[in-house]
Q: What sequence folds into this?
């Protein structure tokens, strides 16, 4: 049973009823937790909660479930699959000790790889709450996570992009034009992924064929994905559609995922079906998950747990399925959950840190909605910080404006900026293809060709001739 916590500062004693309340009060301020009535009432209370949380032993998180074991399949997944052997080297630490150890030279990339299965999402969330932004960046940078399907994502000194050619009416010519635009800017090595405007099996199948035709015709070492519901993807597979990746938005509680219309068994079924197609060339990671702080609260499925901890629990779901890609759509849900640029920046760094610490190939949709107190300069700042932190991939959208989903994110130019300023390169297979197609030379300079590659030019000429 969850115990209470108390901490005295001078003549004032602060009481925290249980671990969930302590975690919530220790969380850096954000509008979602304020909306849920979970936020600390003052900066002093938040600081005291952080001091108190720092003294909590890591073993507490194995014995004091924030959401009861019998009520939630995500809790059961986290507890049942916890690796005690991997946990043993850090089992004696408190949350504060864990922070200090993560920042130390003893916590090398190699050592962090050996303990990741011993870290629960709640432990990752807890330690993030007492870390500065630079701490989150430093530790995330040390976590080296790679995954592969037709391209290899997450290798050191690499930055991949999801080419996101969304269109408000799913017009095939409009989508194809955006795909060409992105490829000519060196985008698309993580995935060519479309959010369909009309979300049904027939339309998903049409879009899958469009992307597969382009990938096969130009021999592009990447993968396609229609970001439709997992059950639609299952039907596409059964109908013989060319499915590369299985997509699903996921949350950190069973009730959240129930509201999304799936459970862990659904994901396992879809993963097995996609694996049976054997479409990967350099790996078999084929799940693609998107998350976002506030999803559990927006579904009234947070169980009184703060939104950042719920988010970390979603990474426990993702880890189960060895995904190719995971990204937090950090500012997409809106200012009710992350109010301004400062809150979005903090959330993006927290999410990236927790995902990497837990062993996920973590990317970020660096984004905001137009009614948030944020602008593109805020996104430039977060993009730059995530690049330093070793983010695996970002989004690439024409002009950074998604005209179908109506939100602001990162453009093809933004990826070029980050690659140039930090010396990052595309996925190795895709980099070789860019060189072969004379789109961008494999010389580390990220200089684009001034001409349309011959194969693309011939296709465009054929269209013009018709």
A:
């Amino acid at each position: 049973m969850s115990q209470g916590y108390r901490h005295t500062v001078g003549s004032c004693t602060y009481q925290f009823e249980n671990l969930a309340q302590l975690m919530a009060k220790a969380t850096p301020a954000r509008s979602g937790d304020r909306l849920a009535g979970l936020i600390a009432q003052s900066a002093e209370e938040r600081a005291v909660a952080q001091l108190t949380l720092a003294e909590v032993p890591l073993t507490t998180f194995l014995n004091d479930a924030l959401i009861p074991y019998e009520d939630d399949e995500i809790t059961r997944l986290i507890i049942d699959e916890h690796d005690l052997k991997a946990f043993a080297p850090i089992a004696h630490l408190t949350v504060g000790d864990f922070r200090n150890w993560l920042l130390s030279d003893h916590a090398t990339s190699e050592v962090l790889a050996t303990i990741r299965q011993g870290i629960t999402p709640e432990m990752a969330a807890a330690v993030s709450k007492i870390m500065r932004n630079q701490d989150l960046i430093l530790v995330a940078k040390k976590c080296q996570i790679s995954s592969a399907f037709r391209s290899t994502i997450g290798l050191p000194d690499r930055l991949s992009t999801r080419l996101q050619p969304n269109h408000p009416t799913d017009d095939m010519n409009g989508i194809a034009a955006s795909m060409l635009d992105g490829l000519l800017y060196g985008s698309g090595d993580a995935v060519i992924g479309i959010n369909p405007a009309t979300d049904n099996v027939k339309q998903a199948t049409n879009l899958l064929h469009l992307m597969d035709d382009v990938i096969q015709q130009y021999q592009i070492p990447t993968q396609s994905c229609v970001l439709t519901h997992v059950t639609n993807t299952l039907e596409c597979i059964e109908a013989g559609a060319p499915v590369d990746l299985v997509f699903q938005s996921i949350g950190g509680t069973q009730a959240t995922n129930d509201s999304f219309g799936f459970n862990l068994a659904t994901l396992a079924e879809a993963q097995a079906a996609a694996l049976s197609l054997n479409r990967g060339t350099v790996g078999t990671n084929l799940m693609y998950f998107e998350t976002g702080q506030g999803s559990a609260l927006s579904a009234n499925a947070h169980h009184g747990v703060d939104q950042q901890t719920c988010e970390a629990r979603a990474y426990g779901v993702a880890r189960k399925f060895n995904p190719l890609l995971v990204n937090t759509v950090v500012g997409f849900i809106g200012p009710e959950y992350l109010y301004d640029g400062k809150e979005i920046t903090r959330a993006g760094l927290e999410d990236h840190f927790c995902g990497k610490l837990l062993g996920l190939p973590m990317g970020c949709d660096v984004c905001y909605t137009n009614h948030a107190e944020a602008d593109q300069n805020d996104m430039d700042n977060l993009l730059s910080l995530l690049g330093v932190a070793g983010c695996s991939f970002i989004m690439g959208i024409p002009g950074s404006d998604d005209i179908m989903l109506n939100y602001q994110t990162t453009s093809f130019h933004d990826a070029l900026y980050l690659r140039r300023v930090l010396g990052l390169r595309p996925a190795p297979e895709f980099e070789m293809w860019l060189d072969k197609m004379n789109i961008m030379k494999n010389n580390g300079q990220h200089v684009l060709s001034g001409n349309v590659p011959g194969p693309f030019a011939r296709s465009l000429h054929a269209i013009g001739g018709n």
In short: The CA atoms of residues 256 and 301 lie 5 Å apart. The mean pLDDT is 95. The two ends are 72 Å apart (CA to CA).
